[in-house]
Amino acid sequence: MRVVIADDSVLFREGLARVLTEGGFDVVAQVSDAGTLLERVAIELPDIAIVDIRMPPTFTQEGLVAAQAIQERHPQVAVLVLSQYLESHYAMKLISDGATAVGYLLKDRVLRLGDLLDVITRVGHGECVIDAAVVSQLVARPREQPNPLARLTPREREVLGCIAEGRSNQAISDRLGFTTKTVESHVRSIFLKLDLAEAADDNRRVLAVLTYLRS
Amino acid sequence: MAGRRDVPLLAKILVTLALCVGIASVATYLFETRLTRGALTRQSDRLAVSHLSILKQAYLAQERSLDALVRNLAAEVTTRALTDPSRRNELDAELSISHRDRQLDLLEVMDTQGRRPVPPAGSVSLRDPPATAAFEAFDVNSHLLAATDGTYVQTVAAGVGRPTDRLILAGGYAFGDAFAYRLRTQIGDLGEIVLVAGGKVAGTTLHERREVPPGARVDGTGLPTSPTVVKVNGAKTLVVYAPIAFGSDGAPAGALGVALADPTASLDDSLARSRLTTSLGLAAVALMLGWLLFRSLIRPLVRLAHTATLIAGGDRDASFDIRGRDEIAMLGDSLARMTEESRAQAARITDTSRRIVGAQDEERHRIERNLHDGAQQRLLTASLAVGVVMAGRAAQDDARLAADLEDVAHHLDLALAELRELARGIHPSILSEEGLGAALGSLAEKSTIPTTVLRSITERLPAPIEATAYFIVSEAIVNSAKHGHPSAVHVSASRLNGHLVVEVSDDGVGGADPVNGSGLVGLADRVAALGGQFTVESPPGEGTRIVAHLPCE
Question: How do beta strands B106-111 and B140-146 pair?
């Protein structure tokens, strides 16, 4: 899988490149700002661009803007945004128009390289991935009564979290150790209880669930 | 105080003026009415007295003509010796003719004992003959004598004939209504006439029939000899009497009276009417003059007061309109300068406060960036390094090393999370990058109590406004969670009349103290620095509601 990395911290960027190379990825370019990123993506057309949300020159959210630009210009290029912000708002900006092959991950995840590589692979294969911490903050958020989430069983809540993180039914069954059929029945039950319409695909399902959780 | 202030100055002055004019009018009215009434009374009294004297003249003229008539007749009777008893028929005829010609009510001849040698010819007869001893030939006496039918007769009597066969010739007019009308015609209808005889009304031109003369006591005595006002026929009437026609005993047997309508009776109404009209006119003129006069004095004052009220109420655009160079203008000038000075001072303070708030925000932002790009970045790089080691073959082979590394990773996780929260608390990047709406949503998501953003805004506002609003909501939610024990917190932010209005309310226990309560005081200062308003309502048991109005034009 061909990868472009964008991060202004040289140490971090090179460390990440090394890890990815060792993990079997082909790092075709490393850049330190959004402008160069867009140029290199246009030239290399990688499978995935891994982008720090905060880059020169303004150190605000160039990464996010660049990610959206890449999605728009090169829909075949997946984008994973690495962020230090535990904000569902940014994640929603990324997936809001039902985009595919995008991810919003906390940078902290570099501690668990296995998970990180897994996420990169999933995004590279067209899935939507939302950081588990972002999702759990939304699911665990205290809500006013009557709280529809309270009607979910603990299992269902677990499944709901997985859906919001962007996992497919297959991935959920792998992760939680259920059969796919069980997962499907849980999903139906969840959508029924939350009064949500069944989504056309996994990515739209993420969007629907996240929108619900944030409201 | 408020009640007194409510009456405008001009109204006070006009009311005072109107009162003065009113009092003056009433006083003048009372005084003048008395004067006029006195003058009028004196005048009408004189009129009555003069009418009475004219009446008396007329009466005397009647008496004189009667006197002459009787005297002539007596002379003729004597000359023709008609008193001779043998010529009684002649005498009788003569008297009958004279009675008819002279239109006398009484004409008779009687002897000195009162016997009537010739019977009365169609006329009244006297009840008592005049005293005979007094009559010599041609002696004439005028008396008011009672007739046999109870009426009174104005009588002139004379002795006729020789001393041996002396008779008394008496002629007269009945002292009744006809006589009264005759007298009135003679005096040219100057008033009504009352003839009094024997204490009773003998004849009158008054329409009212009465026995007791008007103005007299019920027993008919005490006729007023000076003008007196009495009620006659329901109308106030001025009466005055003069005694006349002494009886044969020499005492007054009757009186002449004049009755005039009282001229002062109509005085009250007509004078009151004219006085009232005059007063109203005067009051109107005084009010108009007062209004014109005081308007020029009061208007500038009223304008000053109005402007001062506006300024005191916080109107920044109000300014004193100063005209002329009098004391009021000086006062206005001083007020204007004081206002200018205090406005300038307020502006300086606001500027300073704003700069301080801005500098604070800037400093927080800077610290947040430093944390982010410094410590946080280094920790992440370290994490990556640890991650690499953990993923390496050596760690996988060495269980103890793996456990140690897991421990390091755990601490790194915690450190990163804490650092992230610290940076966020100092200055949330989502606020400066995405605006207040997104930042409030983020606050609600992270809140430990159910928090709902009911209304929010999407547009961007000046950084100090956004930061202040954000910290108010943040602090309010923290306070609610800490002290209020609410089941829910509601947040709203909206634009209203050039202001950003943020409101945080909970259904907790209330009783929050805005003065000693935590970080609310600092927030109130921030709001004041931006020229906004900050209120905390927290009645015990009814939840807490915090509202801030921040100007953001």
Answer: unpaired
Q: Which fold, A2-130?
A: Rossmann fold (3.40.50)
What's this model's pTM, rounded to 2 decimal places? 0.59
Question: A107: which chain B residues are within 8 Å (Cβ-Cβ)?
Answer: 380
Are both B85 and B116 inside the same structural domain? yes
Nearest neighbour of B442 by CB, restricted to A60, A89, A144: A89
β strands within B151-214, DSSP E: 152-160, 167-174, 192-197, 200-204
Interface mutation target, options B371, B424, B433, B480, chain A, most CBs of A under 10 Å: B433
B415: containing domain: 346-427
Asked whether the beta carbons of residue A142 and residue B377 sit closer than 8 angstroms, the reply is no
Q: Rounded CA gap, B201 and B220, in Å? A: 9
**Do B359 and B420 reside in the same domain of the chain?**
yes
In a domain, B103, yes or no: yes
Question: Could you tell me the sign of the dihedral formed by the alpha carbons of B362, A52, B377, A83, in that order?
Answer: positive
CB A55 within 8 A of CB A63: yes
Question: Do B445 and B411 share a structural domain?
Answer: no
With beta carbons under 8 A apart, name residues in chain B contacting A54.
372
Give the CATH number of domain A135-214; options: 3.20.20.70, 2.60.40.420, 3.40.47.10, 1.10.10.10: 1.10.10.10
Per-residue pLDDT of chain B (553 residues; tens, 9 = 90+): 334 455 666 777 778 877 887 788 778 777 877 787 788 888 888 888 888 899 888 888 888 888 888 888 888 888 887 877 788 788 888 888 887 777 788 888 887 776 776 666 666 777 766 655 555 545 566 777 777 777 888 888 887 877 777 788 888 888 888 888 988 888 887 788 888 887 888 888 888 778 888 888 766 567 887 888 888 877 888 888 888 866 666 566 788 888 888 777 666 667 667 777 887 787 788 788 878 877 777 777 888 888 888 888 877 777 877 777 778 888 888 888 888 898 889 888 888 888 888 888 889 888 988 888 888 889 999 999 898 888 887 777 888 888 998 999 999 999 999 999 898 888 898 998 899 999 999 999 999 999 999 999 999 999 889 999 999 999 999 888 888 889 999 999 999 988 999 999 999 888 877 666 567 777 888 888 888 888 888 888 888 999 999 998 7
The H or E element containing residue B279 is: helix B267-312
Dist. CA B44–CA B259, nearest whole Å: 11
Q: Is B124 found in the same domain as B103?
A: yes
CA distance B212 to B223: 10
- Pairing of the two strands B167-174 and B106-111: antiparallel
The shortest CB-CB distance from A89 to any of B441, B450, B452 is to B441
Whether ipTM exceeds 0.95:
no
Examine the fold and report which residue of B404, B427, B450 is the final residue of a domain before the chain moves on.
B427
Q: Where are the domains of chain A?
A: 2-130, 135-214
What is the domain count for chain B?
3
Scanning every residue of chain B, which has its alpha carbon at the shortest distance from the alpha carbon of A114? Answer: B391
